[in-house]
Write a structure and sequence with these properties.
GO biological process, one term: methylation
CATH topology of the largest domain: Rossmann fold
Largest sheet: 9 strands, mixed
Number of domains: 4
Number of strands: 20
Keywords: Methyltransferase, Restriction system, S-adenosyl-L-methionine, Transferase
Catalytic activity: a 2'-deoxyadenosine in DNA + S-adenosyl-L-methionine = an N(6)-methyl-2'-deoxyadenosine in DNA + S-adenosyl-L-homocysteine + H(+)
GO molecular function: DNA binding; N-methyltransferase activity; site-specific DNA-methyltransferase (adenine-specific) activity
Protein name: site-specific DNA-methyltransferase (adenine-specific)
Structural class: alpha/beta
Length: about 650
């Protein structure tokens, strides 16, 4: 293990040990995080500010004496950081306070002395609410003493900014495992993030010009995706001498993880980025968009999977009253085309939020990488939100590729996951096409599982994915890469009706609605009976049996009529949008005449119920049948089982 990794693991163990030593009988194990995470942040801030404390205090006095109210900028300058503390206290000063009541007062003054951006971090950690319990148990002083241990060096000289981020992430992971939290709710493994950022940047790295770029994550977690994306963009463009600057933007509803993300950015010296992220319980991305109307160059997210967003849906007005332009769009002539998914799973809503922020008037447009579970590929019937979303993205030709990741990639789940790569500036060769990459077998096993995570995507594995993506239709690897026309994923869902047939029905009269209702309730269904006629069309109407218009004699005259459909015989069929029309008007008619009419000659299509849907099935496209066992192998197993049974019987008999 590299030296840095050993040091990070040692620090995490030391901090974890503090939790066990000080909080064991005071908090249940799942609540250690409420104290340990904010104290880790505070101790790091404390070490960073130590060298400029006197300069900050002098500046504070100078500003107060001059009656200057807006003191933030000069105090930041004095601290030489994007944050400061004007309390005059440090952890070392607090340690010398023996009286526990006075210690609490001094500690509160210490917290109050931080700059407004750090105050927001403290508030979202909800640390002040822990102080009464810590004080009563005389644990506050013990915590401060433990965090001042010489073995636990959280200063910039002992741990650089990246290392501090790694320590944060590992602590969050361990706390999440203890709490058995939902998969991927707080943060995404770095190997997955690196792959996502490469998928986003690498295909266009050569054409990214020098300039300023805006990066956004709508489900930010601890902010790792944004910082890795920033690093990746600069690394890929540096060899060609590009001058790249970035602005980071993000939103996160979880208070703790938002606090960590903001603290991490501040500690890295990126105060502006810290000011550009928004979070806390009132800042749900779906119902309270902090960046409405803004556009970004590059976006990425790991939204929550399978998590109810019913509260957000209610805030948006309920499913039938949503008017947010992120989720109600114009498509295929429908000005109220709904992308609103089931309230039980809102992951595609997060992706719709990203797409709503794409740039449409720049040369590069926008690129998006978002990771989802398998339900985003196929759940939702034709006309429902999930299917509508897939149709919208594919028919607008924004979906570049989907990459299936290995199982056991994430810390709290072993489920299948997929990275969606989306852009509104496809290469010419990719126009109208979608590439599916099965990277489930491209992984490197970990020597020891980290939670549920048993594999990682190494640099070599990621290189293979990127090479396959760039090769596109030239990739000679059909087991792992396939290219489709976007329309290949679409289908028409048609309603197949058959007439209601009731014994004794008059085939030459039209039945009223009340009569039909009574027939359904009291009549006897008979397949040989005449169909129930519900409507006679005008004399000029043309018969069209395919769509339920038939000839019948009514009052001695031939009319075109419609039969009452029998709900018990109603069925649906999915017809691929690519179904060949052959000699017929369209693929639907060709399918219907081939697959339905031979078995139900009286059936028709209710065209008013036809809906278009889209689904993407990796299983179908990359299915590898398991070879059947040979007869010799089966016989050998039977013999082995028989021999084992004989041995057991002999052994039992011997015991008797």
């Amino acid at each position: 293990m590299p030296h840095d990794s050993i040091n990070h693991a040692r620090i995490v163990s030391l901090i974890w040990g503090i939790a066990d030593d000080v909080l064991r009988d005071l908090y249940v194990r799942g609540k250690y995080r409420d104290v340990i995470l904010p104290f880790t942040v505070l101790r790091r801030l404390d070490t960073v500010l130590e060298s400029t404390r006197d300069a900050v205090m002098e500046m504070k006095k100078l500003l107060d004496d001059a009656g200057i109210v807006d003191q933030d900028a000069p105090l930041r300058d004095a601290a030489k950081q994007a944050f400061y503390n004007t309390s005059g206290f440090t952890f070392k000063d607090l340690r010398s306070t023996a009286n526990k009541t006075r210690l609490r007062q001094n500690f509160e003054a210490y917290l109050d002395g931080f700059s407004p951006n750090v105050q927001e971090i403290i508030e979202n950690f909800d640390l002040r609410h822990q102080l009464p319990k810590l004080t009563k148990a005389d644990a506050l002083g013990a915590l401060i003493e433990k965090f001042l241990s010489l073995d636990l060096d959280l200063s910039p000289t002992g741990l650089d900014n990246h290392g501090m981020g790694t320590v944060f992430e590992e602590l969050v992971r361990r706390f999440n495992e203890d709490n058995n939290e939902e998969a991927g709710e707080h943060w995404t493994p770095r190997d997955a993030v690196r792959l996502m950022t490469r998928l986003m940047f690498e295909p266009i790295a050569d054409v990214i010009p020098s300039g300023t770029y805006r990066l956004y994550d709508g489900a930010m977690g601890t902010g790792g995706m944004l910082t890795v994306a920033e690093e990746t963009l600069k690394r890929l463009t540096a060899p060609s001498g590009k001058q790249i600057s970035t602005y980071l933007y993000g939103q996160e509803i979880n208070a703790e993880t938002y606090a960590i993300a903001k603290a991490d950015l501040i500690l890295k010296g990126d105060g502006q980025a810290a000011d550009n992220i928004v979070g806390g319980p009132e800042w749900s991305t779906l119902s309270n968009d902090a960046f409405a109307g803004q556009e970004f160059d590059f976006m990425l997210s790991n939204p929550p999977y399978g998590k109810s967003w019913k509260t957000d849906l209610n805030r948006l007005g309920g499913k039938s009253h949503v008017i947010d332009p992120r989720f109600i769009v114009t498509h295929d002539g429908d000005p109220e085309y709904s992308l609103v998914t089931r309230s039980s799973d809102g992951q595609l809503m997060f992706l719709a939020n990203l797409i709503s922020k794409m740039k449409h008037h720049t040369a590069l447009g926008s690129r998006i990488a978002s990771v989802h579970n398998g339900s985003s590929l196929f759940t939702g019937d034709a006309g429902q939100g999930e299917s509508n979303f897939r149709r919208w993205v594919i028919e607008n030709d924004w979906l570049e590729a989907i990459v299936a990741l290995p199982l056991k990639m994430f810390y709290n789940t072993g489920i299948a996951t997929y990275v969606w790569v989306i852009t509104n500036r496809k290469e010419e060769r990719r126009r109208g096409k979608v590439q599916l990459i099965d990277a489930t077998s491209w992984f490197t096993p970990l020597r020891k599982n980290l939670g549920e995570k048993g594999v990682e995507i190494s640099t070599t594995d990621a290189d293979r994915v990127l090479q396959t993506l760039k090769a596109f239709d030239q990739a000679d690897d059909p087991d792992h890469s396939k290219v489709f026309d976007g329309v290949d994923f679409g289908y028409s869902k048609i309603a197949v009706e058959r007439p209601l047939r009731i014994a004794g029905v008059d085939p030459h009269r039209v039945y009223k609605a009340a009569e039909i209702k009574k027939l359904k309730e009291e009549g006897v269904r008979d397949e040989s009976a005449s169909p129930v006629i519900k409507k006679a069309l005008p004399y000029a109407a043309k018969p069209d049996p395919l769509h339920g218009r038939y000839k019948a004699v009514i009052d001695g005259r031939t009319r075109v009529v419609e039969y009452e459909p029998d709900p018990e015989l109603r069925d649906t069929e999915q017809v691929a949008l690519t179904e060949p029309a052959g000699e017929y008007a369209d693929g639907i008619e060709a399918f219907f005449r081939r697959e339905v009419l031979p078995y139900a000659p009286d059936a028709w299509i209710d065209a008013s119920k036809t809906k278009i849907g889209y689904e993407i099935s990796f299983t179908r496209h990359f299915y590898k049948p398991t070879p059947m066992r040979t007869l010799v192998e089966i016989q050998a197993d039977i013999r082995a089982l028989a021999a084992e049974t004989d041995d057991l019987i002999t052994e039992i008999a011997g015991e008797d």
